[in-house]
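Session log. Operator J.P. requested a structure for one protein chain; no other inputs attached. Running the standard single-chain path with token output.
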Amino acid sequence: MTVAHTIEPAVAAPHEDPPAPAAERAPRRAPRRRRISVTLVLAYAFIALVVAWALFPSLFAPYSAYDPIVAGLQGPSPAHPFGTDQVGRDQLARVIFGARESLLGAAIAVGLGGSVGVVLGSIAGSVGGVVETAVMRIVDVLLAIPGLLLALTVVVLLGTGTTNAALAVGVGAIASFARLVRSEVVQVRRTEYVEAAYLSGGRFFDVLLTHILPNSLRPVLALLALQFGGAILALSTLGFLGYGVTPPDPEWGMIIAQGRDLLGAAWWVAALPGIVLLLVVLSANRISQAWSEAR
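Structure written below.
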């Protein structure tokens, strides 16, 4: 008995086109636009307004900051949005003119703390060894002292006034800048391109100024904005305690101090300048956060 074996013809596979390139398979996506933060825009706008107050107070102040206009302790009104103080001076005008003292003092404090801190941090991170240990021990001592206590100690030694108060706050800011810059310099110093610069015959200061510092200072911008807000708050605290400007010159801390006993009867004397101070500090912190995230 024979078994017939049938051989089925092979079915040819259907012809398939080669896969299309990746660029043809999926349409290219448009680059995503960065979302604009409303809070960041408001922070920039408010800081710009306060800076304009400090530079051109006469353009914004409706009245004199020194002369009485109406009866004292008048509440907020269209004519006097911030009301008047005990002697009848317009509070909004005093806040606007006081911006110059507050912002100037903060600029001096941040300038002193930033410049000295960057120098100390650069030396400690670049040289290393005993020099780094000595510098960082000084930084640790400064960080161990509360900032307000250190500022009070310095301002008592130097005397009252905006400049002395700013120098006192600036001394307290040195440690933060020095620690940050030292940390960044140590990281950049270990990179390959810095080692290559040394191997190619680069001198210490040339490599430091050309390669190390330019790549180490970006985080300092965020700290500058943060310290600027903190300096305004610290200066206002010193002014509140009587270590700032002398009356009748306006300064935010002193303006708030003059209304501290009137919160029940005339809340606007201290509350509205305090709100302006709070918004300035919050705006500086928001800008610092944005600059830190953009690294």
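Operator note: The domain at 38-57+88-293 is CATH 1.10.3720.10 (MetI-like fold).
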